[in-house]
């Protein structure tokens, strides 16, 4: 009797490896512990590369400049200075050198300090009209001079360098100043909105350090505290002018002219003048 031989069929067929000719084995999934270890090793290498770049940068900064070839890092502007290429910032030394070195510079705001202007329906009282062209549109401004402005400008021009510094556009403000100083002999310099610093919210700040004058010889007169927020100790605040014919702010301001020449530092002169005004 012939017995049958049962042959067991293989459960899975494996193909020989094309390189070795050996039969390959199924790859098992990597251990979670090994995956975490590999990830940690990768992070460690990344941190090492970052630290290497950081210390290399420090070495470049602290390395003395070479005498011959090579590059050097340019220093950043000091606090209070502005780079001339920085957009939205006035250039350093906005004014030319003073004609009389050491002379006191009085910086006067324009709108609501020396005059009040309005557009639209002509008001009951105004002194002159200007027609600036702004962005291609001609506009009409009715301008009322503050009481005492003519006397103030004449008196100031005799002893001070007079600068009108306004946040208004040049197209408008230049025409108003022409009316206040028709002969051009009282106002030494004019600065407009493009010389102001524009802060958050569109607020315009007048940085006196950009004028090219020693701050101990500069006084600013303005109705807006934001304008002189960088140099408050140099500022004489005045009430805003609209149309009060009995306004005496500029008449009182002329009292400062006598005080100013008794001090070398205008910040001390301003402090003394304001303290005397409080007593009155």
From TrEMBL:
Residue ranges annotated for the FCP1 homology domain, each copy included:
99-260
* Composition skew (Basic residues), residue ranges: 1-10
Looking up InterPro entries in the UniProt record yields:
Dullard_phosphatase, FCP1_dom, HAD-like_sf, HAD_sf, TIM50
Region feature (Disordered): 1-38, 68-99
Which Gene3D superfamilies does this UniProt record tie to the protein?
HAD superfamily/HAD-like
- Give the range the annotation lists for the signal sequence: none
Biased composition regions of type Polar residues, renumbered to the chain = 28-38
Q: Which domain of life is it from?
A: Eukaryota
UniProt GO MF annotations: phosphatase activity
| Record-annotated membrane-spanning stretches | none
Q: Which Pfam families match?
A: NIF
Query: Which PANTHER family does the record match to this protein?
Result: DULLARD PROTEIN PHOSPHATASE (PTHR12210)
Q: Which NCBIfam families match?
A: HIF-SF_euk (TIGR02251)
Q: What is this protein called?
A: FCP1 homology domain-containing protein
The record lists the organism as Vanilla planifolia
């Amino acid at each position: 009797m012939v017995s049958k031989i049962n042959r067991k069929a293989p459960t899975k067929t494996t193909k020989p490896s094309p390189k070795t000719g050996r039969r390959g084995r199924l790859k098992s999934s990597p251990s979670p512990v090994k995956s975490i270890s590999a990830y940690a090793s990768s992070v460690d290498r990344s941190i090492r590369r970052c630290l290497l770049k950081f210390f290399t940068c420090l070495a470049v900064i602290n390395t003395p400049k070479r005498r011959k070839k090579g590059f050097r890092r340019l220093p950043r502007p000091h606090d209070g200075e502005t780079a001339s290429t920085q957009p939205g910032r006035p250039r350093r030394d906005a004014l030319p050198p003073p004609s009389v070195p050491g002379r006191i510079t009085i910086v006067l705001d324009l709108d609501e300090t020396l005059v009040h202007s309005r557009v639209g329906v002509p008001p009951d009282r105004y002194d002159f009209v200007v027609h600036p062209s702004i962005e291609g549109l001609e506009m009409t401004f009715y301008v009322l001079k503050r009481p005492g402005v003519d006397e103030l400008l004449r008196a100031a021009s005799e002893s001070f360098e007079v600068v009108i510094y306004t946040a208004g556009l040049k197209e408008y403000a230049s025409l108003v100043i022409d009316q206040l100083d028709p002969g051009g002999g009282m106002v030494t310099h004019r600065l407009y909105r493009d010389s102001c610093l524009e802060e958050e919210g569109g607020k315009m700040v007048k940085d006196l350090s950009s004028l090219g004058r020693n701050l101990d010889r500069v006084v600013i007169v303005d109705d807006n505290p934001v304008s002189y927020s960088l140099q408050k100790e140099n500022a004489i605040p005045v009430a805003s002018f609209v149309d009060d014919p009995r306004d005496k702010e500029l008449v009182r301001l002329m009292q400062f002219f006598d005080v100013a020449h008794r001090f070398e530092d205008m910040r001390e002169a301003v402090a003394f003048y304001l303290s005397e005004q409080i007593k009155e």
